[in-house]
Design goal:
six-stranded parallel sheet, 9 helices, globular
Length: 231
């Protein structure tokens, strides 16, 4: 049996409420990784996610490449988003039980990686449960030890509106690929996954209800969705 945890980056957006309503209909609980600047822009949409008992994680305030800024700048950006998320939960009247973090672009900070991991640990950020992931590369790159939340499969649908030569066919072919060059095969037997989608209105305009197409296909192929758990 294949199982997956759904994570959604760069939230919130105008289409956030529709995404949440669809996930509730399918009984899927996801982790939404928020950029602080987007929360400020779409505050009501962000409140909707929290009030509907999805988990909101920190994805930085301004979505920087952490290897291209100083350690102090990276920490400041994370903490600015933390302040916004604390207020968000308070305004929603919901206890903030979990504080997962994901680096923008999966960029863990270059030479500051160890310092940032220590910071996340010392500040009590929550590590997503990943002990059921048995990929050699997951351990080779120390992803089993890192506090931040990485992924095993990225749909890359954000590229649809950015690259003229990037098509929906590429995504469908990637989903079926039994031997991808990076990450894990989506439908290999007994695979476990942390999936990465994005909350982008630009993608919504390019491919309306893109998230429904992908998730419905996963369900049709027998993938079941895990409840978020933390170590």
């Amino acid at each position: 049996m294949n199982t997956a945890l759904l994570t959604i980056d760069d939230f919130p957006s105008k289409n956030t409420k529709s995404i949440v309503d669809f996930l509730k209909e399918k009984n899927i609980k996801a982790i939404f990784f928020a950029t602080g600047k987007n929360v400020e822009k779409f505050y009501e949409e962000a409140l909707y996610v929290v009030k509907n008992r999805m988990i909101v994680g920190n994805h930085s305030y301004s979505h920087p490449e952490c290897s291209k800024i100083s350690l102090e700048e990276a920490i400041s950006d994370i903490e600015k988003c933390e302040d916004i998320l604390n207020k968000l939960y308070q305004d929603a009247g919901v206890e903030r039980k979990f504080r997962p973090f994901r680096f923008p672009y999966g960029d863990k900070g270059g030479s500051n990686k160890d310092a940032l991991q220590n910071y996340l640990k010392e500040k009590g950020f929550d590590k997503v449960y990943d002990k059921h992931l048995c990929y050699d590369w997951w351990k080779e790159f120390n992803l089993d030890k890192d506090i931040d939340t990485f992924w095993t499969f990225d749909f890359e649908e954000y590229r649809l509106h950015l690259e003229k030569d990037f098509s929906q066919d590429y995504i469908w072919n990637k989903m079926q690929n039994p031997n991808p060059s990076s990450g894990a095969a989506l439908f290999a037997e007994n695979n476990r996954h942390i999936l990465l989608l994005h909350a982008h209105d630009e993608t919504e305009r390019f491919m309306p209800e893109y998230y429904k197409a992908f998730i419905n296909h996963l369900l049709e192929k027998g993938i079941t969705f895990d409840e978020p758990e933390f170590i």
